[in-house]
Amino acid sequence: MKNSTLVYPIYFNVAEYGLFGIILGGIVAIIIYFNVVNRKNKTVAGFLFGGKNMSIFSVSLGLIASHLTSITLLGVPVEIYLRGTQYWASALSLILVTILTAVIYLPVFHRLQLSSSFEYLEIRFSTHTRTIAAVLFVVSKLMLLPIVPYVPMLAFRLVTDPLAGRATAVVCVLCATFTAVGGLQAIVSIGMLTVFLSLAGTALPAGLALLPMGIKRMWEIASHGDRLVLYDPDPEMAHHTSFLTVTLALSTNWLWKVALSQSSLQKLQAVPTIAKARICLAISCLGVILMKLLSCLLGLAMYAWFAGCDPLLSGQIKKHEQLVPQFLHSLSSMFPGICGIFIIAIFSATTGCIASTINSVSGVIFEEFIRPWMPQSTSELACCKIMKLLCVLVGTYCTGVVWCARELDRLQHVAFGVTGVTAGTLLGLFTLGIVFSRANCSGALSGCLLSLLLCGWLLIGAENALASGALTFQGKHLATTGCGKVNFTHVLVNLTSSLPSAANQIPTKPLQSLFKISFTYCPFAGVMSVLLIGVPMSYLTGKSRTESINPDVFCPLTQSFLHKSQMRSLTESLEVRPPDTQEVYEALDEALKQLKDVIDR
Fold first, then answer.
1. How far is the first Cα of the chain from the last one, in angstroms, to the nearest whole number?
2. What is the pTM assigned to this prediction?
3. Closest CA to 302 of 165, 90, 64, 476
4. How many CB atoms lie under 10 A from the CB of residue 385?
5. pLDDT tens digits for 124-156?
6. Is 535 a residue whose pLDDT tops 80?
7. DSSP category for residue 95
8. Contact in structure between 126 and 448 (CB atoms under 8 Å)
9. Shortest CA distance to 307 belongs to which of 487, 88, 481?
């Protein structure tokens, strides 16, 4: 039961404001450099792909930064705190996604070198398929874009007053907008800054929190609190932190993000060769896994710190999203400045994420909906200026929503759901075209339509189940028995007696409805819907003529099958059939006539 404790704001000290000013100044310097001093982005390739001659190091850090959103830095430790360490299995998902991307998807797009990833769907299927996919992408990104700065704004409200927190979020969006105007090189530069800040902002608090207790004591507290979950085989699909969910559902979502999203493909095509692109993928995979594991460690340290007195139940915070800043504020009593470092890392990560999203959305809007209507004689410089103007317009939209909206909690969940639905459908469309050589336009459109209907139905049903309380995301046991203890060590010593054992957990309820399926399965359901409908429908409506299709649109494995099939057909057509006796006589007679004519001459 909550007490009447007031939630006091945690204000930055002078040093933290100074550090924040330095980082903000660094971001502004990057913006000025790539928008005023180094104005080389006069072509579409220069703006979207950085001239396609960037270094492996910078692109790898840019790919890592695309995963380090504020949602990751704030959400993963809270997930560990509430539900245990099963999230560690996401490292397996990242390894699988990296392998699939390098083997199946990357070779196709690196050969074709397309300005927009959706141009592939027109080459493979039809213009209608391309337009539908582009609309889905733009709508989902425009819905998600205002949510990205909203999550850190909740954290900033804990360190400043609400108006200043909102103003800081607006400054973040404005910086991201002008970074996007600077092109991919500016975005990658912000990404490099983000990686180092995020590494420091996650590793330092986790390491410093272990100094009073030690890693062994933290491990014991996490074990008694049932937070050490290495393998949760729970098959119930409403449980969104089971091993199956973390590996299968997250793999589907990340495969779209890493292999096929416009922002990721821009970075992977910014290096000159596919070998270098694969190296970038491998480095980014290792970097993201490291950051995920550090976030898990931070979550365990937070649980060991608050195991006896949950800040939400005790009234110290209003939402669990504020748990990390509250923990850092408690830690700053022993290590001043640590709270500022983490929140500055969040600011930088949010800026980089928004800038990358604005840049990719603007590029897709231009390539899909504006360029087809422009005269072919339009110069590259004019095209580049139009894309920069689109970046400003998209950034203005995001700024307006962040400033005007009071609460985005409900929209946040809907936006994540819509993003999952579109990610699954789009991944299914691209996979259908890249892997299945016999797929045609009819199969792609029918699979896309069914996927949207099915996933939309599941999403709406899940939203109603959440609103009615039929679907809940239950966490582990939280306690307040240690509240009021004046000595932190005393709380740790007496903690084990107040924590429940794993045998006393609340039993899970059996799955009773499809609407109780966790929304994290929406991308997987979307992919399977497209494939299970698209492939049979393609065969029913007539096989596509693979001999008339550019073989570069297929992955290497599919190309090898096609090559073997064509060689087999050629061999069969060239087989020598048994000679006919009459034909042999006629050929001999013709040869003798020609020989007689030669002799007569």
1. 119
2. 0.82
3. 476
4. 14
5. 888 999 999 999 999 988 888 888 887 677 666
6. yes
7. H
8. no
9. 481
d(CA 529, CA 526): 5
Please answer whether residues 34 and 182 qualify as being in contact, where contact means their C-beta atoms are separated by less than 8 angstroms: yes
What is the DSSP secondary structure assignment for residue 309, as one 8-state letter?
S
Q: Which two tokens stand for residue 315?
A: 């009234």
SS3 131: helix
Q: Does domain 35-407 have CATH number 1.20.1730.10?
A: yes
Minimum mean pLDDT among 17-26, 70-79, 147-156, 542-551: which range? 542-551
pLDDT at 463 over 50: yes
In 3D space, the residue among 129, 199, 561 whose CA is nearest the CA of residue 349 turns out to be: 199
In the block, tokens 């416009």 appear at 262
Query: Dihedral of the CA atoms 391, 394, 399, 402 (nearest 10)?
Result: -140
What pLDDT, on a 0 to 100 scale, did the predictor assign at position 490?
A: 45
Cα–Cα distances (Å) from 438 to 186, 228, 333, 426, in that order, read 41, 47, 64, 18
Q: Which residues contact 291 (CB under 8 A, 6 or more apart)?
A: 64, 67, 68, 72, 198, 199, 202
Of 459, 264, 470, the C-alpha closest to 360 is 264
Q: Is the torsion defined by CA of 386, 350, 413, 73 positive or negative?
A: positive
Chain centroid offset of residue 428 CA: 16
Q: Which residues of 226-246 are buried (b: 16+ CB within 10 A; e: fewer)?
A: bbbbeebeeebbbbbbbbbbb
Which residue from 175, 148, 180, 157 is spatially nearest to 266, judged by alpha carbons? 180
Position 149 scores a pLDDT of: 81
Distance CA 297, CA 205 (A): 10
Contact 453/202 with Cβ under 8 angstroms?
A: no
* Of residues 454, 428, 422, 424, the one with CA closest to residue 443: 428
Q: Evaluate if residue 521 carries a pLDDT over 60.
A: yes
Of the candidate ranges 213-227, 317-331, 362-376, 381-395, the one whose mean pLDDT is the lowest: 317-331
Task: Give domain limits for the chain.
Answer: 35-407, 573-600
pLDDT at 409: 60
Q: What is the mean pLDDT of residues 370-388?
A: 85
> How many CB atoms are closer than 10 A to CB 594?
9
Average of per-residue pLDDT across 172-178: 86
Amino acid letter, 6: L
